[in-house]
Amino acid sequence: MASRNFYIQLIFRVLFIALTALVFAFALVKTWYFTLAFSICFFVAQVYSLINFINSTNRKIAYFFDAIRNEDFTLRFPEKVSIKSFKELNQSLNRVNGLIQEVHLQLQIREQYYQEILKQASIGIMTFNEKGHILFSNPTLEKLLNYTPLNHIKQLTQVDENLYETFKSFRPFERKLFQLTNEREQVQLALKSTPITLDGKSLLLVVVQDINEELDEKETESWVRLIRVLTHEIMNTITPIASISDSIIKYYKNNGEIVSSKELDESQIKNTLKGLEVIKEQGGNLMDFVQSYRSLLNVPEPNQTIVKGKNLLEKIDVLMSTRLGEEQSTFYVTCQPEELEFFIDEKQITQVLINLCKNALQSIKEIEGGQVHMVAGIQNDGVKYIEIKDNGPGIPTDLIDEIFVPFFTTKNEGTGIGLSLSRQVMQLHGGSLKVRSIPNKETIFRLTFA
Question: Residue limits of the PAS domain (predicted)?
Answer without folding.
Answer: 110-149
